[in-house]
Amino acid sequence: MNPDFPVVGYIQLDNSLLEISEIVNGLEVPWDIETAEDGKLWFTQINGTLHLLDLKTGRQKMIYQVPGLIAKKSYGLLGMAVHPEKKWVFLHYTFAKEQGGLDEEIFSRLERYTFNGQTLGQAKIILDSLPGATYHNGSRIAISEDGKLYFSLGDVGKVDLVLDDAFAGGKIHRLNLDGSIPEDNPIPGSSVWAKGLRNSQGLAFGKNGKLYGSDHGAITDDEINLLTKGGNYGWPEVHGYIDQEKEKLYASNYSTKEPLIAWTPTIAAAGLAFYHTAQIPEWENSLLLATMKGMSIRILHLDETGNQILSEDIFLQKSLGRIRDIAVASDGSIYFSTSNRDWHPRFQPWMYDGLPEGPDRILRIRKMGNNEKPIHGLPVFKKESEAIALMDENWNYGINQELESGAKLYNTHCLVCHGPEGKGSEDLIPPISETDWVVGDKGRLIRLMLAGLSGKIEVNGKQYNQEMPAFDHLTDRELADILTFLRNHFGNKASAVIPGEVYEERKGLRK
Ligand code: HEC
């Protein structure tokens, strides 16, 4: 008998009506969900627990807790894969060699267990002492049809090492199910399969064994990549498409793969699944992408070859909050998990607008039969006509805190010359209200703050030839706050500056 999972709404497609129902509630960041042929749903929570849910009865139980795990911010129990025939479960989790929670003490490990019907046992370490951090640990795990394990590990913040083959971070690893290294890996004796990734939280096999991965960009350029043997995906030298001069130069020297699609502003592209069946014909042969910051499910329609994304549809935007993972069951129903209780960066407060309160959930989307009737009064979602603007609009939400700190810093460092109203002074100091320098190219503005400015410039049609001091002694955050204030005060209205952007420009100037 099928349990009555409470219906929360519907999705109306061209020809299909889909039902969304709640499968589990009361969760705390369900990080990875996997569906099994036998009608079971496996899921992890970041705090280290593994659960098994029987979709036929609706009953779920916790079957394992990773011992000694510390879960804070974005580390804890992360990727999982299940091999139902062999009854093997693979888990990736972080641990600290010495408790204390400093970055350099965090490591992670990929482990295989046997499921005895009740709990996990016979732990076998597949990869140990992997580099870890409080952020960017990845991860996802996927098993190919030919029995190889693919595992993504984030750059763990060690950006300079990502393109080094000897460093495990920022890579896709490929292993045999017993942890040995396949003989046909691109680098003999190494598990590294592909490199140049930042923080990949989505892996999915499509048609003909093609492997797709999502990757979080920094401030720009979230990506979906077609992951191939030995592929270099460019991070940190290439962000998104190979379109800037220095990216082209790098790509021509070190053969670099372009993403199939990239998003700026970023949407925090996370869990990924391939929709294989004709159960929902409108979505057949597409990648389903869970987005956290984007608070939506994206349908990425692939072409016949699977080498190209033809179009993107957005569903459920800002309806259920952040979405972390997504999985497709063999009957064509789709399961996904919310991630509203997780830690996420606070420098973009508008991300909180509309974020649901309360515990996280796992929900299901399934196609309704022709004679099934929707419940009157529940919401019916359709394809969104546009994506919410995450950087350039809606930025007023709760930004006051940022503006307050920026305003104070402005008073200390800038007011003496540019004045309390940003008007500057006749012929000597240019105004900073509605000037192209302030609201235009962000990179140029940041570089001006770091390097100072001298010589002739034109501001709002007037010439100035004075000197503006450099402020490279201020921290990334201080500069970001000042510039965010500047771009949202004195009549200016432009996107915020975040510390990561200052960091990138600072690094660029040093080269
Ligand atoms: C000692 C005086 C002085 C201080 C302090 C100062 N500036 Fe300036 N600023 C100038 C001058 C002079 C120029 C024009 C430089 C030139 O002529 O090449 C300028 C130019 C600029 C410009 C580009 C032109 C425009 O008006 O759009 C910006 C933006 C700017 N300043 C922002 C700031 C900010 C933000 C601070 C505080 C962190 C600051 N300045 C502190 C003197 C100052």
TrEMBL record:
It comes from the Bacteria. Residues 401-490 form the Cytochrome c domain. SUPFAM superfamilies: Cytochrome c, Soluble quinoprotein glucose dehydrogenase. Keywords: Heme, Iron, Metal-binding. This is Glucose/arabinose dehydrogenase. Coiled coil: none annotated. GO terms for molecular function: electron transfer activity; heme binding; metal ion binding. The lineage of its organism: Bacteria, Pseudomonadati, Bacteroidota, Cytophagia, Cytophagales.
